[in-house]
Amino acid sequence: MVPAPKYNAVMLEAELKLCIKDRELSLVVGDITKIPADAIGNAANSRLAGGGGVDGAIHRAGGPAIMQELDQIRARIGQCPAGDAVATHAGRLPAQWVIHAVGPVYGDGRSGEPLALRSCYERCVELSDELGARTLTLPAISTGVYGYPMDLAAKVAVSAVATKLSGDETRVERVTFVLFDDIAFRRFADATLDMMPTLAS
Ligand code: APR
Question: Which superfamily, per CATH, for 7-181?
């Protein structure tokens, strides 16, 4: 009898789903503030002060309660370093939690950026587990204002999340990368398809 394949990927029009064990890693194009999930990842800054891009969109859609909670966290811990994350409630967003991850500012690519970016995604999954979140949406952290090249960021992001979903520690069932445009989707799809043989071995 031919054994069932360990992994399979299905590409729909602008959606890609990869099954990892009984979990799912998905890519979609869209606005992360519109897609329901238990936890939504944010691309924050280390001052947790809000900004433009996806951070601005999350605060606008979620309302002032998110910043009020961040004010309390800031008073307690000061800054959140690149590679780490903090969680707040999600206000009016279609979620229970926002996980504010601080990505690295991209310099020459040899100053710890890949490790810090990887750590952001790992922390998002770890905090989801601490909060009891089973579904998590994530943006392409650091690929906007922080200048991380999309193709390189996609490889790090997909590898970090797929490794977490392959492990035994997490109870997260589905992680969805919500990419803002077709080019970002394409880069993440390429990274996902490139990684599949590694996952299967
Ligand atoms: N949904 C999904 N993705 C989005 C959305 C959205 N609503 N808005 C923007 N994006 C995408 C961008 O196209 C980019 O690919 O999110 C990615 C990350 O871009 P930024 O938001 O600029 O985040 P980053 O590069 O990590 O820079 C963080 O920007 O806004 C400030 O406070 C933030 O200082 C921090 C810095």
Answer: Leucine Aminopeptidase, subunit E, domain 1 (3.40.220.10)
